[in-house]
Amino acid sequence: MDADVTDSAGTPADPDHPAGETPQGRSQEEPGATDSKDEPGSGSAAPPGEATDADASQDSGDEDDGGDEDKADADAPQDKDKDKGQAKPSGGGEEPSAGAGPVGTGVHTWADHPKDGSASRRKRPWLRWAALGASFLVLVSAGAGWWLYKKLDGNITTDTSAAAELKVYEKERPTPVAMDAQNILLIGSDSRSGDNKKYGRDDGGSQRSDTTILLHLAADRKSATAVSIPRDLMVEVPKCRTGDDKETREQFTQFNSAFELGGTACTIRTVERLTGIRIDHHMVVDFNGFKDMVDAVDGVQICLKEPIDDKDARLELPAGRQTLNGEEALGYVRARKTLGDGSDTERMERQQRFLGALVNKMQSNGVLLNPTRLYPVLDAATKSLTTDSGLDSLRDLYDLVRSMRDVPTDQVQFLTVPRQPYRQNTNRDELVEPDASELFKQLREDKPVAVVPADELKEKEKAQDEKPDDAGSDSESPTPTPTYSGSSAADDLCEQ
């Protein structure tokens, strides 16, 4: 009898048996077969082709449910829970191609739910398109970012000749004292060649250092001090190599001759001999670089007590508060003869105040923290920038800018080396001692300095001179911070 049951059952999901003709499944027959052995008279399995009462009952149920396959699928788990342990009537009307397991076992797979599987397959193309779109955007963004990075990086010109010459004279150079501090020499090129020829006569493309600033960044990056060195300051210029590989003689002459004679390396060595400060890096920026940076921050605001009409500086401005664009700003910091007393010293002070306003504009408008606004500034700066190999990449410049972005504007200070008219030629300058040596020592050892407006400093010095000798000894109080005439980036140009 067991053999008959096995033969009639066939494979539960056999596709060779069409719906309505499938024999009873094994799981449906075996309970009945067991009963026939244990309980005589209970009946035996019907021969193939003959329907039992159970078959008739199931056929009736199949006719009721056969038109709703979804309902059958949904009811299957409930039948298992309701009739657990009991034999269920054979589902003769079920379609084996549905892939269901033997009835009564309660086993269901994803194949039991073709409708759900179809829905999943319909959703997958959308997911794939979304993933492809996201991947494309990532690739485009990465590609654009890489292109911008390479563009800015490629704008910078590396000054390899200066490094080579400095290496030759390494034994003469000062030894660094404060290792984490940074001393950067900023040189404003006064070349009149190329795009700069409209600003004056071109002497065969020769360069002159119109502006030279020693920028000292404190080791803790809580202050930055920019010291201007007058171009007419009388100094000792060491032997330097010229562009045609000749060597100049050591001479006592005005400071900006060093750049014209031996370029950047000669200027660096002259500053190091003058101050005893080791120069870590240098940057050379021409007129167009400064002009484009001002335009990149949408101009800088100043106040003029009197109107300006300077043909040499190509500048004509009314009095009052106004915002200068790049071209106007360049004329303002270069103007000399028609502003103030016409001295180079006063022009340097005006340059310092304007640079302070530029720094303040960049920090107050969030330029340094906003990549969208920072890019034009970096693009303008790098296009006209020549620097040593330690600052010739965008990453190096970014690290430098990032280290300075948290410096309070009132601690970004500008001053000029203590100077006075040269005794043998009043059109030249000389250092005021011991004030100058004290300033250089403070910077060399990374110690603080303070700056105040010139009139305030004069009042302070006058009060000090009038102080009685027995008013107290300075040794009884902490050493005061040396104070010099200058300004900070926090100062308002309209209050000057």
Question: What is the share of helical residues?
Answer: 40-55%
The description of the largest β-sheet is: 9 strands, mixed
Major sheet: arrangement of strands: 1-12-7-2-3-4-13-17-16
Q: Segments where pLDDT lies below 50 for 5+ residues?
A: 1-104, 199-205
Number of E-type strands: 17
Mean pLDDT: 74
Strand content: 15-25%
Please give the count of helices. 14
Give the end-to-end Cα distance, rounded to a whole number of Å.
Answer: 116 Å
Secondary-structure-derived class: alpha/beta
Q: Taking Cα atoms only, what radius of gyration do you get, to the nearest Å?
A: 45 Å
Oligomer: single chain
Overall shape: it is globular
Please explain how this structure is put together:
By secondary structure, the chain is of the alpha/beta class. It has 14 helices and 17 strands. The protein has helices at 2-9, 26-38, 53-65, 69-82, 114-155, 160-168, 257-275, 287-296, 326-334, 344-364, 371-383, 394-404, 435-444, 454-465; strands at residues 157-158, 182-189, 209-217, 224-228, 234-237, 251-254, 281-285, 300-304, 308-310, 315-317, 320-324, 385-387, 412-416, 419-422, 425-431, 450-452, 483-488. The strands form 5 sheets. The chain has a 9-stranded mixed β-sheet with strand order 1-12-7-2-3-4-13-17-16, with helices on both faces. The protein has a two-stranded antiparallel ribbon with strand order 5-6. Helix 6 crosses helix 7 (257-275). The radius of gyration is 45 Å and the shape is globular.
